[in-house]
Structure formats: structure tokens, C-alpha cells
Amino acid sequence: MSEPIFASAADLARDLAAGTLSSEEATRACLERIESSDGDVHAFLHVRADEALSDARAIDQRRASGEALGPLAGVPIAVKDAFCTTGSPTTCGSRMLEGWVPPYDATVVRRLKEAGLVILGKTNMDEFAMGSSTENSAFGPTRNPWDLTRIPGGSGGGSAACLAAFEAPLAVGSDTGGSIRQPASVTGTVGVKPTYGGVSRYGLVAMASSLDQPGPCARTVLDAALLHAVMAGHDPSDSTSIDAPVPDVVAAARAGDVAGMRIGVVTELSGEGYAPGVEQRFQEAVAALAAAGAEIVEVSCPHFSLALPAYYLIMPSEVSSNLARFDAMRYGLRVGDDGSHSAEQVMRLSRGAGFGAEVKRRVILGTYALSSGYYDAYYGSAQKARTLIIEDFDRAFATVDVLVSPSTPTTAFPLGERTNDPMAMYQADLCTIPSNMAGNSSASFPAGLAPEDGLPVGFQVMAPPLCDDRLYRVGAALERVLTERWGAPLLDALAGRDRLSEGGRA
Fold it and tell me: Which one of 22, 36, 137, 179 is the catalytic residue?
């Protein structure tokens, strides 16, 4: 098995700029790692090997000619398969879009290319981003590199798993109810959901338009900040894009100073129902931040208990509307188009064959919630609950700088354990959903390993809208504590031997 690249994206970028490493060499190393390990992990749905090497050589030539390049130029990156990419398929993990190649790039993808990053390929995901385990992909599940019998989180399990398997130093994800943060938590990586509107959604295949938000995935806090800075910023093509300066997330990550910060522990998001190891590592992280100079206070957000049920009415309602475009008439899968079926029959046959069980479940639920006679009772009531959650955040942020909680109640659970129990699956997003409902920024950072199973635990930080830099201040401070404990960032410290070659267990 090939030797993985342990270097952070920041270190790779430094070596590339210094000329001690070429982008082609870094890209080739990643591609060799994907070739040797992804048969076990299945983080990628599409690898653009030849194109990536060509892109890398072009970056090397530009650097050799003396052209000024961006801070991440030449660094390889993976992109969740929900973003439109010219020349590469965008399937959203669904048979409905199998083989579809978009005619344009998502704004995020365009910005990656303009910044000189080298796109390795597209990562696996729950179908149309619906799931918490990446088991709903029509092309097979992704496995957690820490333990190949366990899930890597979802919906963006492929992006998180490729980082944990050292197949790529950076990745892009999207977060609708925790799809960046929950995978980051269970794979020991960093995942950030920026302020809603902080990163353009143009070209991100919509799941739930009022909730979806692209964000960076990385192995270190600084790497995530560097990628965040590339992705973020106003986009006139996205009507929900915020026309405001991007917070200086890179400076915040480099500083990592929490002295004088007021950190609120959300009482409703810890304690009973959480795995003992998750609760233990969370409390240790809080104590470490206090020792670093932060003031810790308890904060009650009583309406957070409404977030999960309200989300599972609002999100399916938007899913029902957004997925109506996949009608077999313009693009995508078409079944029964032999001249013997009406357009309505072709549509029904195609959607029946193209959508998986979880997508159908959510479309049906959303259609019901929006139907005549039920709209006010379900969708309307859920929106009222959403307002109460926003007000909880507003009151909390009037007294504290950030809020914290575990990222998810458990460590990675076994593959197949919750596939027949949707409610148990939905509980994985218990802590992450409130920030999607309110639109504020939020992130998951590694907090160590749970004593009972040796698997990663995530620490969630929530900040007010447009205060994304506060996430990185706290995350970098926590990372420093872990570095002192392990001698390196969590993943690097435990990667001295190749976990995948040792049966998938750390």
C-alpha cells in the first residue's frame, strides 16, 4: 500500500511555494493512495486522474514562470458529488443522475480552480444528501477509515473519509442538517458550516434551499480556514449570498486565542442519551478551554428540543419541491421511453426506478406536509418553531461569544445498525440541526477518542452569523491542547502505522 501524505494542506502549500515539492508529485501521491486504499473505503465515486495530473502540471508551469499564485495553489482537493463540475459526472449519489455531466461549474468549484487547487475527483454521499451514514448512496456505502465496519457519517461521508484515509488533504462538503459536521465528528477531522449565505450555493444541487450551505473539510483547523477563505464571498448568481466582507478566518485560526472569550455550554445538548465517552471528552475539552483563559457559563436554549421534529417537516417540504425537477423530461434517468407510455407514465417509472427509499420517504413526507388542509398544522407550525430556535440563539449570543456542545451524541456506529430505523438515524443530527435552522455558523473539531471504543469524538462550536472567525479561534485553541497531548494533530498522531493495512482499526 502506498505511503500516505501526512502533511497538512498548509505545509504542502509551503513546500509547493518553496519549490521543494511539485504539485504533480503531490497529486500523484494522492492518486496512488486512492488507488491503494479506496477499494476498502469507497470515498470516491469518480477520480479524474489524468485531468488532475494535467492540472497539476499546469500549476507547476505557472509557478515556474514566476506567476503569483494563491496560498493553496497546487494543493489537491476532493469535491462532494453534489457540486456541478464540467467534464466530470455529478450524480448526487443517485441513479437518477448516473453519468450526468453538467454544462457548468458550481461557483465553489470555479473558485477552487481559480485559486489553483487540483481537483482529484468527486466523493460519495447519501443520495441527494439525505442521510447520516452514507449508506443511502446508490453506488454503495463509504466506510470509516478508523474502523471499516462502521459508518463515516453522512451525508458527506466520502469527503470526511477521504481525509481520514489520507487520500486528499482537503475536501469540500455541504451541510443541510449536519452533513459536514457529523462526518467530521466520527472521522476525527475538521468540518465547518459557514454562515448561511457566506458561501455560494450556485451549482450545488439543491436539497433544502433554506438550509443547504457549502463548507470546508480538512484535517487541521488552519487548513479549513485557508479553504474557507477561498470558497467564501458574495456571488451575484446566488440570491441568498450575503454581500458582506468575509471574516478573517485565517488570522483567527493562526491566533487560536480564547482568553477573555465567554463560551456557553448548551444544557439541552449534552448529558442523558449521549455516549459516556462522548460526554467525557466534551467535558474535558470545555475544561481545557477554561484553562486557556475562556470563561465558561451554562446557557439554556429551551426550544432546541423542537429543532429535530421541525427540521424533518421543513426539510422534506423543500425536498419535495426541489426534486420535482427530476422528471425524466429534460435530463437524467428515463425509463419506459419506448413510445408505449405517456409522459406521466415515463415520469412515474423513472422516479420510481431512480430514487432510493430514503429519498422517496422524504418526498412523500414533504408533499404531505405541504398538502391542502395540513400546511398550517405541519409546515406552518415547523416554521414557527424555527423562529423560536432563532430567538434562542439571539438571546444566547447576547451574553456569550460562542456556544458549544458535542457534535453528535455517539461515535461512529456499525454499518447497517440503523438502516431500518429512520428515527434512530435522524438522532445522529440532534446537535447539528439547530444551526441550520437558524443560519448561524457552526463547526466540528476533534476532541480526542472515546475511551470505550477508541473512535473519534467531535466538539461543536456555534457562533453568530458572520462571526465565523470565532469558530476558528476556539477550534485552534482546542487543537493546540490535543497537539500537546498527542504530539501532533489527532489524525497525524495516530497515523504512524497505516490503519487500513491493519484491518481498519486504530
Answer: 179
User: Could you give the C-alpha distances from 255 to 229, 472, 473, 481, in angstroms and in order?
Assistant: 16, 9, 7, 14
Q: Tell me the three cell numbers of residue 182.
A: 457529523
pLDDT at 137: 98
80 is known as an active-site residue: yes
SS3 call for 160: helix
Residue 356: what are its φ and ψ, rounded to 5°? Answer: -85, 180
Active site residue 155: yes
> Which of the following is catalytic: 37, 80, 317, 441?
80
Catalytic residue among 155, 241, 320, 442: 155
The DSSP secondary-structure symbol of 211 reads T
CA distances (Å), 422 to each of 84, 140, 161, 414, 428, in order?
A: 29, 18, 23, 15, 10
Our CA dihedral for 30, 453, 496, 143, rounded to 10 degrees, sits at -20
Q: Which of 135, 144, 125 is nearest to 207 (CA)?
A: 125
Is 37 in the active site?
no
Q: Which helix (H) or strand (E) holds 457?
A: strand 456-463
Sketch out the chain's domains with CATH numbers.
Answer: 9-305+386-502 (3.90.1300.10)
The answer to whether 455 touches 494, Cβ cutoff 8 Å, is no
Which residues, 6 or more positions from 305, have their beta carbon under 8 angstroms from its beta carbon? 268
Query: Using one digit for the tens of pLDDT, what is the confidence trace for 15-45?
Result: 999 999 999 999 999 999 999 999 999 999 9
103 contacts 397 by C-beta, under 8 angstroms: no
Residue 247 has which C-alpha cell? 471574516
Q: What is the pLDDT of residues 435-450, one digit of tens each?
A: 999 999 999 999 999 9
**Burial readout 10-38 (b: 16 or more C-beta within 10 A, e: otherwise):** bbbbebbeeeebbbbbbbbbbbbbbebbb
Q: Residues, the chain, total? A: 506
List Cβ neighbours of 371 (8 Å cut-off, separation of 6 or more). none
On whether the CB atoms of residues 308 and 436 are closer than 8 A, the answer is no
- pLDDT tens digits for range 173-191: 999 999 999 999 999 999 9
